[in-house]
Amino acid sequence: MSRFHDADAAERAQREFIARVSEKALPTDLVPKVVLVEAAGLRIGNVLKEAGLAASSSEANRKIEEKAVKVDGTRVSDRGLTFHAGADHVFQVGSHRFARVKFEPKT
Predict the structure, then answer these.
(1) Which residues contact 20 (CB under 8 A, 6 or more apart)?
(2) How much is the average pLDDT of 83-105?
């Protein structure tokens, strides 16, 4: 383990790996941060598209129907879920795509 890095770095990497794979924990430092400006609220399909987690709103809605979408670790099944300014959530599509999205008011 510590062939390329010091023993502390190797231990942290091993703990992170176990947490991600075995315990299905969210990654701590690899989640990209996205800021979305909205006026009246954004539906989850548009959020996933704008955050780069889905190529289109249609794909995002398919992923929701497939039960492949989580918000803050909780599986989402409502395509009508809307997010408003002031919210800050971690979105997950599948097992490898994550984004922390902060919603700011339109000025």
Answers:
(1) 27
(2) 91
